Amino acid sequence: MPAPRRVRFAADGVALVLELPEGSLPRVVHWGRDTGDLTDVDLTALGRVTSAPNAANGLDEPHRVAVLPEAWSGWTGTPGLAGHRLGRAWSPRFRPDQTASVVTTEGLGGSARVHATDVDAGLGLDLEIEMLPSGVVRLRAEVTNLEDAPYVVDGLHLALPVPGHADEVLDLAGRWAKERVPQRGPFRVGSHLREGRHGRTGADAVTVLLAGEAGFDFDRGEVWGLHVGFSGNHRSIAERVHTGERLLLGGELLLPGEVVLGGGESYVSPFVYASYGDGLDASAGRFHQLLRARESHPATPRPVVMNVWEAVYFDHELDTLRALADHAAEVGVERFVLDDGWFAGRRDDTAGLGDWSVSEAVWGGGRFGQLVEHVSALGMEFGLWFEPEMVSPDSDLAREHPEWMLQVPGRLPAPFRHQQVLDLTHDGAFRHVRDRMVALVREYGIRFVKWDHNRDLVDAGSTRTLRAGVHEQTLAAYRLMAEIRQACPELEIESCSSGGARVDLGILEHTDRVWASDCIDAHERQQIQRWTAQLLPPELVGSHVGAPEAHTTGRRLDLDFRAATALFGHFGIEWDLGAASQQERRELAAWIEFYKEHRELIHTGRVVRRSSEGGALWLHGAVAPDRTRALYSVTLLERPVTWPVARVRLAGLADDVVYRITPAGPALGEHTPDPKVLPAWWTPDGADLPGAVLSRVGVDVPALLPDHTALILVTRVDGTDDEAATERSGT
Ligand code: GLA
């Protein structure tokens, strides 16, 4: 065998070195910190110093594991492609048909595309391996059945190796109203397997599976993270095998017989994304960069939202909602969203899904149009809630087309929030929803759809194929979104699923923000948003100010804390402002003004996260890409053992730039904290110090009460901020 060709892609401090053997699939030699330029001689030597040794009582010819691992090479871990032709063709060996097509873009990554065939198994494979300018690695595979006899795909996983010092694994767990809770442990021998079988991404979704150096944190320790960009069933695995390899693998989880390829048919895997970083912030930052570089990334300032769900629930009434819109406009809201309960027989959550026409009983006599006009006249956009993939058994749609509900022969899936799933692979069902939605969007000039998805797809088969239906349904939902957006180019879509159960990069190809959780208790939201940020930048994460007493937890929290928490996302309100006092509305208006003033910084800045005082004090920050400005929040979530001396380091600043730090936020008006609990610098003039001091020594913070936040604004004194520079030099 000739020596394999090796290529290095590098972007933003990350390198991916690939080995492209002539007779087998590509293998990763190095994925991690950039090595700097490597000559062909270096690459050959690198290949030699990283090749597996020939162990006693082991493989005579050891092979480095491929991006799509195969058993022929002696690999005993999870296979890349699992499938068969009624028992035959069960262990593929793909050989590239021609040399890989490789494109390298200096400093901006590159890509390798490999077309391979297994003649004996009658299968073709197309592999795409890319390094994007953000340094994120993206992989995808397509398998094609080259014979007439059907080929069953049981699973397709793509894999990236991590080194032997990646000793700990961290991923996310959760449930309804408490999404994205981190869990962490040693990288043990065997598989740390996370399966999502909800037929949606899931409130307990892994989101990002990370392996890293022992003790890695937001600011330190190498970490390697993997994300499966898919909104249906999926699998993420951190696998350590007895021969020493450590891999992160990901792919779609296919139900039995869900994908059966006829002659000439193909299965395309979802994209698997991988982000390396020195510290969790660096890994998250790459995902943010990747998303922000998309053409479809929201380009306009993220409007302040009023969502009426927790204000009125199903109690729709024109006058109440008009009054709510008046209050909303008065405090500075820019987008008014009417939630569930506006259509057909939908007076509570037991009926009506699928019948997408304005309810005559509640909104007849032109009242719906009057609300829309009222909202527009107040200068706000109008948004509307839909749950397009669902159907209530108690609906005209289900009565007319019981066969359009996903089911297995002889029974419907167990009821879940009194609803079933509409099988969008039935052409008629697809067209029904698409056409109703497009018609309503056009008729009422709707600018925003909150696209909900409130049940699991379990026992979910199609009456059309008699097969498991999650795979096709997920693709059909993407198609539905794409077609609606094409027909209504002005429309923005929010991905909601019982709160935050559909947060992934697959859905974000078709949507403009996610609803992170049905829990808007700010104490809980601090955690939910902190970890949603491991994948998504704040401008994509809906974040609302709720009522003083949180509906999901009963916790009472003051307005400053609620608003300061919502600030670091796509800000909104979900609170009956009619029940709020005038004083509360005034304070809320001041927060909205503050959000508008700083949203550009928050929505383009680099996210930094830190904690101190044994995890009781959390720092969250947005640092402008040019590092001239930053906004930090410091939040006390629990009462620490030692107090009140507490210091935070303001991460992300440039060492040699002098900054002015000042207390920030409208809270400084009515709610100036007791001067006895303030550090000396906590004055309107603040203090001027170089970034090196602020980020290494840090600053003392006010002795906060639990569930309270202090905001710190940082602006560059010299250079760009001329006025401040002049002041400082005393001229
Ligand atoms: C889901 C959403 C909520 C709300 C309700 C309406 O639970 O997450 O925000 O829209 O549905 O039924």
UniProtKB/TrEMBL annotation:
Keyword line: Glycosidase, Hydrolase
Reaction catalysis annotation: Hydrolysis of terminal, non-reducing alpha-D-galactose residues in alpha-D-galactosides, including galactose oligosaccharides, galactomannans and galactolipids
Record EC number: 3.2.1.22
Gene3D superfamilies the record matches: Aldolase class I, alpha-galactosidase from lactobacil brevis
InterPro entries referenced in this protein's UniProt entry, alphabetically: Aldolase_TIM, Alpga-gal_N_sf, Alpha-glycosidase_related, GH, Glyco_hydro_27/36_CS, Glyco_hydro_36, Glyco_hydro_36_N
Glycosyl hydrolase family 36 N-terminal domain span: 25-261
Pfam families in UniProt: Glyco_hydro_36N, Melibiase
Family annotation (CDD domains): GH36 (cd14791)
Superkingdom of source: Bacteria
Protein's name in the database: alpha-galactosidase
